[in-house]
Amino acid sequence: MSLWLLNHFSTLTLTVVTVGGTVLLAVVGSVLARRRYPSLVRGEHNDMVGVTLGMFGAIYGIILAFVIVALWTQLDTTQTIVSTEATDIALIARDAAAFPPPVRADVDAALSGYVHAIVDDQWPRMRAGQPSYGVTAEKLQDVFDALQAYEPKTSREEVFYEEAVGRLNDVAGQRRARLNMAEQELPPLLQALAFGGALVLIPLTFLYGVRRLRIQLLFVGAVAGLVGFSLLLVFVLDRPFAGDLSVSPAPYKEGALARYWGGGPG
Predict the structure, then answer these.
(1) What's this model's pTM, rounded to 2 decimal places?
(2) Residues contacting residue 263 through CB under 8 Å, at least 6 positions apart
(3) CA–CA separation, 67 and 213 (whole Å)
(4) What is the rounded distance in angstroms from the CA atom of residue 34 to the CA atom of residue 220?
(5) What Cα–Cα distance (Å) separates residue 195 from each residue in 26, 56, 192?
(6) For 45-83, how does the pLDDT look when each residue is reduced to its tens digit (9 = 90+)?
């Protein structure tokens, strides 16, 4: 459900719905609580409620901060993996320029097939949270086959050949790491703490009595808005390949790899 929402609605729409909906529900709940329990207006329990709010808010804030930082780090790590894989592919293409034309053509054809398989076939699967190792396995094997079928003849070719093979091994490792990241999501326990905590914190603000309704609604709405925006961050950062803030496949189309997409040489 979360992946469908991220892939079918813009971040702006999700912001309006999540933050606006949280604030609206909190304001309505506060008004209903005042009508159901008129004694809340007098603030007879504000001391106890204030201490409870402060303690719970501090604990919940630490949990949310930890979750958001962890998810942001995961997104940044995923972007680094993608960029590094694309860079190594481009360097293999540059190393292959030292090989005889027929070998270079075979390597280029194999690399082109691999990057197209990543962007055209595997990327939509990763956005849907269902990456398939087999989608690019054959194309990656084609690159290995193209290099393994060639035997360098000169010391110059040997140097570039060793570099290309080493980078291709790195690409294989980065591919696995990228696919693992596509399957990552926040553990259920942390999801329960992040979203369940809001169901406790926001209603607690209803119990803090303020005589003027406008002031109380401002207080409740501000807390609900902050909580709603934090939950929005958790929601949009949880899946690194889904939504507007997702990792882009652009590195596989830039620089030396642009020619595989009809662009000029990198």
Answers:
(1) 0.87
(2) 253
(3) 34
(4) 12
(5) 15, 14, 6
(6) 788 888 888 898 899 999 999 999 999 999 999 999 999
